[in-house]
Amino acid sequence: MAERSVLLSVQDLKKTYVSATGPVEAIGSITFDVRPGELVCIVGPSGCGKTTLLKCLSGLLAPTAGSVTLDGAPVTEPPRTMAVVFQEYGRSLYPWLTVRDNVALPLRARGVPRAERTTAVERALEEVGLSQVLHKYPWQLSGGMQQRVAIARAVAYQPEILVMDEPFAAVDAQTRADLEDLVRRVWQDLGVTVLFVTHDIDESVYLGERVLVLSSSPTFVQEDLAIDLPAQRDQLSTRALPRFTELRTHVYEQIQRAKRAETAPTP
Amino acid sequence: MSGATIRRAAASFAFAVGLPVLIVLGWALATRDTVNLYLPSPARVAQAFVDTWLDPETITGDVLPSLARFGIGVLASIAIGIVAGTVIGSTPWLRALLEPMLEFFRAIPPVVLVPVLMLVLGIGDSMKLAVIISGSVWPVLLNTVEGVRAMDPVLADTSRSYRIRGPLAYRYFILPAASPQIMAGVRLSLAIGLILMVISEMFSSSSGLGFQIVYFQRQYMIAEMWSGTLLLGLVGVVVAAIFTVVERRVLHWYHGSREVARG
Questions:
Q1: Banded pLDDT at A90 (limits 50, 70, 90)
Q2: CATH no. for residue B94?
Q3: Residues of chain A contacting B158 with CB distance shorter than 8 Å
Q4: DSSP A25
Q5: What is the structure's pLDDT at A267?
Q6: How far apart are CA A93 and CA B162, in angstroms?
Q7: Could you tell me the end-to-end alpha-carbon distance of chain A, in angstroms, rounded to an integer?
Q8: How do residues A181-200 score in pLDDT, each as one tens digit?
Q9: Within this chain, do residues B99 and B17 fall inside the same structural domain, yes or no?
């Protein structure tokens, strides 16, 4: 197969919920493409339907209209080549399974032979720096370590695209910085495509090679911004760059505009 | 072990056995020189216990058959309850169809089914098993339905996105997630099963613990009757102890995570 220019394609995606008080338009119309190997952050004001968008992308929720295409095939159920990391790490790990079994279960469901599974699990836990807690249960670990386990599980699954839904919203600032660097490292080490949803403007600029700014609900893509920061990022020096400040100010203004809904709903 | 730990253990043991010891002492004092047929002394009841229930013939003829019916009945209830509850709980239309009716069946006191089941199944073991199952299946079944239904949506999404399906999903996701509820149901089922074991034997039976207790009562063998009650109490305590051991093993993750959450 020739070099693909588009891995994930979202075309005119629309989601309307039916509620007791009538239909609620959560997503107006979202269109964007993700190229293979990109690290794209999606940022938007709270309540703009980020989680809804992510569920539609990952085949967990059927959109009302529009299409999601992964690797040329329409997404109608959770795709084999996608791994999702959820915000609520405490509820996305199986508390009755050890760390090792949590990471291994998706591989088992895929039919990966035992020996191969063991290697993959060990390598993934090593990648996130958790080799020493193989036999512990998730609830015996700190929040940051639990989210590392969830990332290890996604890494071991060897996806083409890794989708993360505000994965660090519930951890403390120090842990969060470490986990952000972990995501950059995983992305660079494994060459996986990453789609990272966040409500944190600084995080989106620090992490992303590209930032999609969403509008308020009903949601559309308000801006598609390339992040021209150096590839090697560092919590101290990158965040101190004037360019970083410019970009975060720009995104911040976009979000404020989105909140005030000044822009007309046509991208 | 330090001295303080030993003292604490001794104190909690003294508290646990203190009241029963006092009650038995009071009972012994009150019935010191009694001739009252209905209130035998504890020594008399203890003697009757040894004579009646440690007799090999009673053990093989009454105690073991009773316990076997209880064990089979309760295990069958648990198996039926979990399997049916899982199917109903994971099939929304089936649950909507059956749930009101299940609540109705659960509300029927199982004892009233004894005459009906006797008519249909006679007075043998199958009737007694049917009585036990007809009462003790409901807590497991309804709790399983509820446990399977009330699944954590995040964990459900996780399982779906990693395409964990079929038998693997039942074994590693759905049943473990429901297991705290299922075990609470099992605990109730054990208590109900024990009651129904006794009651099923009180109606036209010729063996078993329930039969013997009624027989002694009708023969004015009051000490023997009390000793049967004592035996049932002991069976209940042993069953509860076994349950606790099993529950600790099955739900170790649940107790552990809750301790951490409280910590």
A1: confident
A2: 1.10.3720.10
A3: 84, 86, 92-93
A4: E
A5: 45
A6: 12
A7: 33
A8: 999 999 998 889 999 999 89
A9: no
Q: Verify that B130 and B12 share a domain, yes or no.
A: no
**Pair (A230, A259) in one structural domain:** yes
What per-residue confidence (pLDDT) applies to A23?
85
**Which ipTM was obtained for this model?**
0.88
**B131 contacts B195 by C-beta, under 8 angstroms:** no
Structural domain harbouring A208: 8-81+159-263
pLDDT at residue B181 greater than cutoff 60: yes
pLDDT (tens digit per residue) in A61-77: 999 999 999 998 999 99
Q: Does residue B4 share a domain with residue B103?
A: no
Strand-pair category, A82-85 with A161-165: parallel
The β-bridge relationship of strands A39-43 and A193-198 is parallel
How crowded is residue A157: how many other Cβ atoms within 10 Å of its Cβ?
Answer: 24
Burial string for B84-119 (b: 16+ CB within 10 Å, else e) reads: bbbebbbeeeebeebbeebeeeeeeebbebbeebbe
Distant-in-sequence contacts of A242-249, Cβ < 8 A, 24+ apart: A244/A205, A244/A206, A247/A205, A247/A211, A248/A201, A248/A202, A248/A205
Say if residue A218 is preceded by a cis peptide, omega within 30 of 0: yes
pLDDT (0 to 100) of residue A4: 63
What Å distances lie between residue A158 and A108, A124, A245, B191, CA to CA? Answer: 13, 9, 35, 50
Helices B92-107 and B64-89, interaxial angle, to 10°?
A: 140
Domain count, chain A: 2
Lateral strand order in the sheet of A161-165: A82-85, A161-165, A193-198, A39-43, A210-214, A221-226
The total number of structural domains in chain B stands at: 2
Q: Which domain holds residue B113?
A: 39-262
- CB A105 within 8 Å of CB B164: yes
Strand partners, A65: A14
Question: Do A218 and A174 fall within a single domain?
Answer: yes
Residues in chain A whose Cβ is within 8 Å of chain B: 55, 58-60, 78, 80, 82-84, 86, 88, 91-97, 101, 105-106, 108-110, 137, 139-140, 153, 157
> What is d(CA A61, CA A57) in angstroms, rounded to the nearest whole number?
8
Facing residue for A92 by CB, picked from B155, B165, B257: B155
Taking the CA of residue B89 and the nearest CA in chain A, the distance in Å comes to 20
Identify the domain boundary among A158, A177, A192.
A158
Give the residue from A68, A19, A32, A21 showing the smallest Cα distance to A219. A32
The answer to whether B201 touches B211, Cβ cutoff 8 Å, is: yes
